[in-house]
Write a structure and sequence with these properties.
This protein is mainly α. Helix content is about 80%, strand content about 0%. The chain is built from 10 helices and no strands. Keywords: Coiled coil, Membrane, Nucleus, Transmembrane, Transmembrane helix.
């Protein structure tokens, strides 16, 4: 290559560099404007929330002395206040916010808000694929430990994988919540309890008590992974249909439990789910029996029994509640939604 050609290339690169500097300068200006707009919106939402809260207290006082017509007007205003709260929730999904206690402990004060719909959906889609991938790995891991490798070290690896998996889920779900996903109720607590249970299993020392429960726990893990696998495809199909109708948020999850929008195909899953719930109760009863054995000296046995009992009660009562709500709804409405 000649010197003249090199000089020409250098001039082109230098010209592009000058354009890049101008573009970056505009970008910095727009970024400052965006930051100011975010701060303005966050401040306005806080002010609105405070005003609506004060107004709600005033309306409650007015209710005591109001007549029938005024009571209807108060109820109408209260309904509109609730609607505005939902709008604020959607607005905040696109604004930076402080992390909750759990994310602060794990990640520190790092902004985890995703500002575009494409980024939010990509993160949620990656979360779903991760959960499905890990469900398959855990199923084969439990099968391997139960039928092929009866060694303490392989059990430890499997239990450590469970701890890591549930810890990762709690972090990812906290990030989804920061980005507008409406995860609430028992679903929020379920993986924290599962993380604790897996951690206790990891610390349970080798012994006769451990061997008595080992096969039962691994068989339960296989069944649980199988049910999660079925639920993933069932619920992702339901969620896809409702998204197509514009009735659900892009960040809603396919979850290992019931949600109010799930009905079609429910009768197929109900036997598997209830059997899994009662298997958790059976695990708890087995562990309580082992805890009362004269040779039992491990504290892990009693803690595992309590944890399985909590999981059973939470899952079973949540299932009954949602199924009852769906039965009470108009069947024609349910048919139309699905």
């Amino acid at each position: 290559m000649s010197l003249q050609r090199c000089q020409t290339d250098w001039e082109e690169i230098d010209q592009e560099y000058q354009q890049l500097q101008e573009t970056h300068k505009v970008y910095r200006q727009k970024l400052d404007e965006l930051t100011n707009l975010q701060a303005t919106c966050s401040s306005a939402i806080s002010k609105q929330r405070k005003g609506l809260k004060d107004l709600g207290h005033s309306l409650c006082k007015c209710t005591k002395t109001s007549d029938e017509k005024e009571t209807e007007l108060i109820k109408d205003i209260q309904m509109q206040i609730k609607d505005k709260e939902n709008f604020f929730f959607d607005m905040e999904a696109y604004l930076p916010k402080k992390n909750g206690l759990y994310l602060n402990l794990v990640l520190g004060n790092v902004n985890v808000t995703l500002l575009s719909n494409q980024a939010k959906f990509a993160y949620k889609d990656e979360y779903e694929k991760f959960k499905l991938f890990m469900t398959i790995i855990l199923m084969f891991g439990a099968i391997t430990c139960l039928f092929l490798l009866n060694y303490r070290v392989t059990d430890e690896i499997f239990n450590f994988l469970l701890v890591w998996y549930y810890c990762t889920l709690t972090i990812r779900e906290s990030i989804l919540m920061s980005n507008g996903s409406r995860i609430k109720g028992w679903w929020v607590s379920h993986h924290y309890v599962s993380t604790f249970l897996s951690g206790v299993m990891l610390t349970w020392p080798e012994g006769s008590m451990y061997q008595m429960f080992r096969s039962q726990f691994l068989a339960f893990s296989i069944y649980q992974s199988f049910v999660h696998f079925l639920q993933y495809y069932y619920q992702s199909g339901c969620l896809y249909r409702l998204r197509a109708l514009g009735e659900r948020n892009q960040l809603d999850l396919t979850v290992e439990g019931f949600q109010s929008w799930m009905w079609r195909g429910l009768t197929f899953l109900l036997p598997f789910l209830f059997f899994g719930h009662f298997w958790q109760l059976y695990n708890a009863m087995t562990l309580f029996r082992l805890a009362g054995h004269e040779d039992c000296k491990e504290w892990q046995v009693f803690m595992l029994a309590l944890t399985f009992l909590v999981l059973f009660l939470g899952n079973f009562l949540t299932t009954l509640k949602v199924v009852h709500q769906k039965i009470q709804e108009n069947p024609e409405k349910v048919q139309k939604q699905e």
